[in-house]
């Protein structure tokens, strides 16, 4: 059997044991394992890395614990705007979508854009027209409703403030605007899901999906659907999926930067990831993390925040599943 590997993430940020109930921790760990085994089963059976990352992200999109698909957050208008992208390392083909409102699995649509169009990136409303053309599943707004996400949005809906999924550090601006009813404190979490894989044929692929920021306005788009910023895959180097404050990841072109450091400076996967996440990003205030895999089956899961929902496996070895930094 040839080597295969898979890694996934479900977001990063201020995720600590103190802020997590035992019940929630157990559920997160179980869902991360389920998603990992979904992709691993495909890779073990000889499926492509592209198929594995898509299936893994679909599982995460269908779980309301994560800010993607079913669990996505509310915009300032009280709706959902979902973004996703996918890339194949064998031929550098890619597909991306943004602003989706009712497509059940944005990552499936991103794959269709890659394989059934001459384009890379489609946005709403055209992206949903394309989804209907190819008979992808749609869901009503009620499918995406989540009480916790709704409560988070209600706290700040009348302000110009947005939240990175949850925010522990409430700004002075919010406090001043709500002296009588200050918002509750939440853990700061960058809500995105993603997967990277190496298949038995030696090809790599990456996929990323998100619901964006709570109370985001003006159709804001982050790094997730941007090839090179939130997602990148190249057989010559690695596959990368990011999670973090998108504005910083876009400015740093994080996913492609990891690949470039390997290709042009000859760094190893671990060295390249460490330099980008723990040095370059930190220097100008970027918080979050990424997952990456190369053609040798090396896996990197770096992050500069308090925690990151993550899991990985190599061949049929025991799975690695973790949430916190320690």
Automatic annotation (TrEMBL):
Transmembrane segments: none annotated. It holds the Pfam family Asparaginase_2. Signal peptide: none annotated. InterPro entries: Ntn_hydrolases_N, Peptidase_T2. SUPFAM superfamilies: N-terminal nucleophile aminohydrolases (Ntn hydrolases). This is Isoaspartyl peptidase/L-asparaginase family protein. It comes from Adhaeribacter terreus. Gene3D superfamilies: (Glycosyl)asparaginase.
């Amino acid at each position: 059997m040839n080597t295969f590997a898979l890694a996934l993430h479900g977001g990063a940020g201020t995720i600590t044991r103190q802020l997590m109930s035992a019940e929630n921790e157990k559920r997160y760990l179980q869902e991360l394992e389920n998603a990992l085994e979904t992709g691993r089963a495909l890779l073990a059976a000889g499926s492509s890395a592209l198929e594995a990352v898509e299936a893994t992200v679909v599982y995460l999109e269908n779980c309301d614990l994560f800010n993607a698909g079913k669990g996505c957050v509310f915009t300032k208008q009280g709706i959902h705007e979902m973004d996703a992208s996918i890339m194949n390392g064998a031929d550098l083909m890619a597909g991306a979508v943004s602003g989706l409102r009712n497509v059940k699995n944005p990552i499936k649509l991103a794959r269709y854009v890659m394989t059934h169009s001459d384009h890379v990136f489609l946005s709403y409303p055209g992206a949903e027209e394309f989804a209907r053309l190819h008979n992808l599943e749609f869901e009503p707004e009620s499918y995406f409703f989540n009480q916790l996400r709704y409560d988070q949005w209600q706290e700040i809906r009348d302000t110009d403030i947005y939240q990175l999924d949850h925010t522990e550090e409430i700004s002075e601006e919010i406090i001043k605007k709500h002296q009588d009813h200050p918002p509750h404190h939440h853990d700061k979490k960058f809500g995105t899901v993603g997967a990277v894989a190496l298949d038995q044929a030696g090809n790599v692929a990456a996929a990323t999906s998100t619901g964006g920021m709570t109370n985001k306005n003006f159709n804001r788009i982050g790094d997730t659907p941007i090839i090179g910023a939130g997602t990148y895959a190249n057989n010559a180097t690695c596959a990368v999926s990011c999670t973090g404050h998108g504005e910083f990841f876009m400015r740093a072109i994080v996913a492609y930067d990891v690949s470039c450091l390997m290709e042009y400076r000859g760094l190893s996967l671990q060295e390249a990831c460490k330099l980008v996440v723990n040095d370059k990003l930190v220097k100008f205030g970027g918080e979050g993390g990424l997952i990456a895999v190369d053609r040798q089956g090396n896996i990197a899961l770096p992050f500069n925040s308090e925690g990151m929902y993550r899991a990985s496996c190599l061949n049929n070895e025991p799975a690695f599943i973790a949430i916190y930094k320690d």
